Amino acid sequence: MRGPAWYRLVLATNALVHATVYAVRPLATYRALDLHASAAGVGLVASTFALFSLFMAVPAGRWVDRWGEPPFIFLGSALTAIGALAAGWAGSVSELAATQALLGLGHLLTVVASQALIANRTDESIRDDRVGLYTVMASLGQLAGPALVGLVAGGAHGRALQPAFVLTAALTAAAAALAWPLARSAGPAPRAPGRAARPLAGIAQVARMLRRPGMLPAMLASLTVLSSIDILGAYLPVLGELRGLPVTVVGFLLSLRAALSMVSRLFMAALLRRFERGPLLFACMALPALAVAALPWIPGVLGLGVAMALAGLGLGLGQPLTMTWVANRAPREERGTALGVRLSGNRLGQLIMPAMVGAVAGALGVAAIFWIVAATLLLTSAWVVRAPFGERDAVTAAGGARGPDGAAPGAARGRGGAGGPCA
Fold first, then answer.
1. Rounded Cα–Cα distance for residues 16 and 179 (Å)
2. Dihedral pair phi/psi, residue 155, rounded to 5°
3. Which of 263, 282, 385, 423 has most Cβ atoms within 10 angstroms of its Cβ?
């Protein structure tokens, strides 16, 4: 794997953290069903993952800007391990929801700090490539986690959830161990010439970020894609339970979605050289919308697998496209805060959408959940394709200086290169 030591550590740490999070969330659904939770109760457990993170994302970005990224990667990994372990012994739906809130906070700290570390130590000319590989490794974790715990939890004598929760906690304990030497490997953060290192503060400056061209549709696309992935992870087990599918099969379907997301991310750089970012984002939301809408009507496992594969191909590109857009638009000393603003939008969607569709499911049935997700993806894609994705922000076009990897800043590669606002 190419890149400096700190970059390889970030990739490995995030693969383990994502494996834990995307394994624990469907496991939490099964735990909630064991606790006799209703569809609305399952939605409550799923949505609390975003509760702390919604309010902590911007402060977390400011902390990262002020004190550096590596300590928060370690802290986030440790909190994720604690949340995963506690979920296995939750005695009520409310206790289970609290463990998911802790899990979400740990995940938030790890993601904000990791994304800021990559953005701050990578020149814009190679940022798309590094962010692309970062999201590929996240997809690898999302693929391996559900499949691994599905094998552990889906035993021949019924569900064995607690060993699976212990396994996920061990994965993030390993991530924390990898994050410990990260500060030494990463070294001091490079400073933008002529700028003081101070965190962005205040609602007015956050509002200024949101007024950047294309920022609002990019954030909406990001939160819609991420919420859709979350709802699939939370409610595919419910659909599987209704159809009598074992935990192993549901875990395989979720891993298949992650596998195809990883495949699409491997080709992200090539796609960006060929297509504009707006139409590419439109396609990566419209395709999974059609696949998700078909899930309640598909009777067999093979058909469900095809639908989840198509959904994964599209959903895989939404996060890296919007992530690098925010990183490219923000000055170096405000980049952690900018990524925190983006993640606040993501967590808002993760908080509202699962709870909303859970309430709808109680009245209209589980199938309505997937149709709502599909409709949301289609409506958002219609807005995204008209967004001003061709503009370039002067902040990232600083002339002359060489980046932290020794590469000279360059113009965007191709029509959809690093300068596109949706990256």
1. 11
2. -75, 170
3. 423
Query: What pLDDT is stored for residue 397 in this prediction?
Result: 36
What's the CA gap between 144 and 415, in Å, rounded?
34
- For residue 30, the tally of other CB atoms under 10 A from its CB is 21
Beta strands in 315-412 (DSSP E): none
Backbone angles phi, psi at 158, to 5 degrees: 100, 180
Contact 117, 185 (CB under 8 A): no
| CA–CA separation, 364 and 61 (whole Å) | 39
Per-residue pLDDT at 383: 81
What residues pair up with 159 in beta bridges, in sequence order? Answer: 154
Q: Are 154 and 31 a contacting pair, CB within 8 Å? A: no
Domains and CATH numbers, the chain: 5-185+201-393 (1.20.1250.20)
Residues of the chain with pLDDT under 50: 156-157, 191-201, 390-423
| Cα distances (Å, whole numbers) of residue 231 to 43, 148, 236, 349 | 9, 20, 8, 11
**Helix H segments across 68-123?**
70-87, 93-120
Containing H/E element for 419? none
- Vertex 122 angle, CA 120 and 127, to 5°: 115
Task: Round to whole Å and give the CA distance between 42 and 238.
Answer: 9
